[in-house]
Design goal:
Length: 322
């Protein structure tokens, strides 16, 4: 059975209109469908504002969908409050900036223990033991247990956030830009820790990042988002050479690699507003291949092989990339 399923999920925010009349709608997420299997890592890529964080928030229960269904192990997330509580235990989240995600006044041990206290897991002695185990699991020395976050380095703080996210033994971890606020020198350590934990705990993971090459390294599948829509969902090994959507190809071609030389695709013009998305294909206003037909309807899902779908009527051809 799949771990997580999003089925036609929309998130629309009502905002005050810039004009005289009423309110506008921001289409943060539109018709998103996605499946995550146990132990699988899904990388989510796309430019700023394309809806990556909204997708992450819907999955962890921080953002209610306007429409559509989110299921965890087959149970809908938003239908019954009791089910929703289960979600809190089964899905952990780590955020971009560990400095703001941790309570500055609490000790490290208290922060890691907090989810165990909230869910009243075990006796106080068992909780203390679990905190020791979790700190060891993420590579934090026992000596920092009584410290407060301000006394730790950025990398150590992210380890604390990871320990807290794993406290209730979730089967899915959502990581939203988990290394972008860290020094380059510690990024690799945190990524390796996540890879190691994924293996050891058979964690499913949704890994959101601007850093395309990291996403490729971390993920089994890559989901490309544009203007609130998932435009391609492909095995990581198929990206970038077999990417069918011109936007996926453009994103990956913008980060040159000696090993993977592909013709750069230069995108011109700004990303359109999520308040007034274009008709038809959301990418057509910046797409070098767009035709009049692209304005008529949102391209349906096409298949490019096992587990590979894309929404484009002028797909890219395969290129040879190692
Ligand atoms: N609470 C809100 N009210 C109004 N608009 C919102 C709200 N939250 C998000 N949006 C809008 O929804 C769209 C998607 O935002 P989201 O934060 O999900 O994008 P993102 O891809 O995560 O961006 P970034 O990479 O910059 O974090 C954006 O246009 C954003 O301005």
């Amino acid at each position: 059975m799949s771990l997580l399923e999003l089925d036609g999920v929309h998130v629309v925010h009502k905002i005050r209109s810039s004009g005289l009349l009423g309110r506008d709608s921001v289409h943060a997420l539109t018709d998103a469908s996605l499946t995550v299997r146990p132990g699988e890592t899904i990388g989510v890529v796309g430019e700023s504002g394309c809806g990556k964080t909204t997708l992450a928030k819907v999955v962890v229960g921080l953002q209610k969908p306007t429409r559509g269904v989110v299921r965890f192990r087959g149970k809908p997330l938003w239908e019954r409050s009791s089910v929703r509580r289960d979600f809190g235990r089964d899905i952990g989240m780590i955020f971009q900036d560990p400095s703001t995600a941790l309570n500055r006044r609490m000790s490290i041990a208290r922060i890691v223990r907090d989810p165990l206290d909230v869910h009243q897991v075990g006796t106080p002695a068992e909780r203390a033991e679990r905190v020791r185990e979790l700190m060891e699991l993420v590579g934090l020395p026992a000596s920092v247990a009584d410290a407060v976050p301000g006394q730790l380095s950025g990398g150590q703080r992210q380890r604390v956030a990871i320990a807290r996210a794993l406290a209730l033994e979730p089967s899915l971890l959502v990581a939203d830009e988990p290394t972008s606020a860290l020094d380059v020198s510690v990024r690799a350590q945190i990524l390796n820790l996540l890879l190691d934990l994924r293996e050891r705990l058979n964690l499913g993971m949704i890994f959101v990042s601007h850093d395309i090459q990291t996403v490729r390294k971390m993920s089994d599948r890559i989901v490309t988002m544009y203007l609130g829509r998932i435009v391609e969902d492909a095995p990581a090994a198929a990206i970038p050479g077999e990417a069918r959507h011109p936007y996926t190809r453009a994103l990956f071609s913008a980060t040159p690699s000696l090993l993977n030389p592909i013709e750069p695709i230069v995108l011109t013009g700004p990303v359109p507003s999520a308040v007034n998305p274009p008709s038809g294909c959301p990418f057509r206003t910046r797409c070098p291949k767009a035709t009049d037909e692209c304005a008529e309807a949102v391209p349906p899902a096409s298949e490019a092989g096992a587990g590979h779908t894309y929404h484009c009527i002028h797909p890219e051809l395969e290129v040879s990339v190692r």
